[in-house]
Design goal:
about 180 residues; 6 helices; 5 strands; about 40% helix; elongated; disordered C terminus
Length: about 180
């Protein structure tokens, strides 16, 4: 399973001492152990696909948060995975940048054909980009279904996260 999966960390986990190019190339060199000409071809392709052609020689600290997210996504996608796990990909972003990241993930998922599995507390925003959602409580799935089913659900835990839900004193509290 590990051979078909990739991961985008919440904090992006870019290496400050490596350039954008080398951050993206890292899994190709370490995990797949590809020849350098193949590494170069794949990295250059991802740089182009994610509109990063102007920054391969820069370091992460020289980039905006949104650009760093794109570099982290490029690194996650460069191994051509079938499944990508996203851990809180919009943490710390303002609403405009948050939606830009959601659109980037959605466009990338459609363009590159991978399944995205996202952990997020951005409810109900995530319903706008998810085909299916599952809500967990203490390690147990308490809801699983389509985004539309989640919106229409009367489940108290889901209702507690929806806009217009009652105040915290009335919200769902697990037993």
């Amino acid at each position: 399973l590990k051979s078909v999966m990739s991961y985008m960390f919440q904090g992006m986990a870019l290496f400050d001492s490596l350039t954008v190019y080398d951050n993206i190339a890292l899994p190709l060199r370490e995990k797949l152990r590809l020849r350098e000409d193949e590494v170069r071809a794949r990295v250059e392709r991802k740089l182009g696909e994610l509109e990063l052609t102007e920054v391969p020689g820069k370091f992460p600290s020289q980039l905006s948060g949104g650009m760093q997210k794109r570099v982290a996504l490029a690194r996650a996608l460069v191994t051509e995975p079938r499944i990508v796990l996203f851990d809180e990909p919009t943490t710390g972003l303002d609403p405009l940048r948050k939606w830009a990241v959601y659109r980037l993930i959605d466009r990338s998922r459609k363009a590159f054909g991978f399944t995205a599995v996202m952990v997020s507390h951005d409810i109900p925003d995530v319903f706008e980009v998810a085909d299916r959602v599952a809500m967990l409580d203490e390690g147990k799935i308490v809801f699983s279904g389509t985004s539309q089913e989640a919106r229409e659900s009367g489940h108290p835990m889901i209702r507690a996260f929806m806009p217009g839900a009652e105040g915290l004193s009335e919200a769902y509290v697990p037993e």
